[in-house]
Amino acid sequence: MRYNNRFPVKILAWAHTNGSGIVVGGKSGITDFRALAGRRVAVPYWYSMHNVVLQFALRESGVTPVIRGEAGPGECALQILPPPEMPAALAAGKIDGYIVAEPFNALGEIKAGARMLRFTGDIWKNHPCCVVVAHERQVAGNPEWTGKAVDAIVRAQAYCAKNREEVARLISKDGRGYLPMPGDVVVKAMTDYGAAYEASGAIRHPEWSASRIDFQPWPYPSATKLIVEAMGRTVVEGDATFLNGLDPDFVARDLVDDRFVAAALKRYPEWAGAGDAAALTRQEILSL
């Protein structure tokens, strides 16, 4: 938005980490990314973490991602599909798999006969998914309001991390109705990450001690840089020339304003290591 559409957004914090996966038809026989050759997979948006991770996994598996009608030998055809339409399209055989944020993966597993192929957080360790953004004018003109909004988000994330099932039922259609999915679907999306998925191969890095979804507000610059670098290797539809020469270090400084979340982390001790500068840097890990 900031560099292609010239819309002056600022990232203020991360909203959650992981929380996505790629599912395939339960009877498709697809057990790894190599088996996606000759298949069709839906993504929610070209400029998304989902497209980046999926294409990384395909390339690492020797499969070429393409954007066209049919996939040739050794290719996987990608298409855009709104997340609410993905489970039904998979059940109807219109696509062979989809990659998206929860709770649409859990919905596919429970209602559409889908099987989890891999969790994205098991490919890119604790990756960002949704982020908190604001108009640059609002951030500059009303810093007190901005700070209070980020404080509320940080506190809410801490509560979600400690009370997953309660929050899942609260936001489901059986609770306050923030999501149109029943409680069992949302609970699965927020809590189900264990031995059964290790046995099926959906989790291959149990030593990462990841979660199906987690809540972590600090916007690691290393992740922003990785996304900018990876987008240069990611196939997208339309004019992507704005990516040429886009410097990852510049984007990490220019797009992200971490002043408010840094202050919030110091105020709320729920976040282990929040006051430790060393905890605010990390090395990004991608491994298929």
TrEMBL record:
<dbReference type="GO" id="GO:0012505">
    <property type="term" value="C:endomembrane system"/>
</dbReference>
<dbReference type="InterPro" id="IPR044527">
    <property type="entry name" value="NrtA/CpmA_ABC-bd_dom"/>
</dbReference>
<dbReference type="Pfam" id="PF13379">
    <property type="entry name" value="NMT1_2"/>
</dbReference>
<keyword id="KW-0472">Membrane</keyword>
<keyword id="KW-0997">Cell inner membrane</keyword>
<keyword id="KW-1003">Cell membrane</keyword>
<protein>
    <recommendedName>
        <fullName>ABC transporter substrate-binding protein</fullName>
    </recommendedName>
</protein>
<keyword id="KW-0813">Transport</keyword>
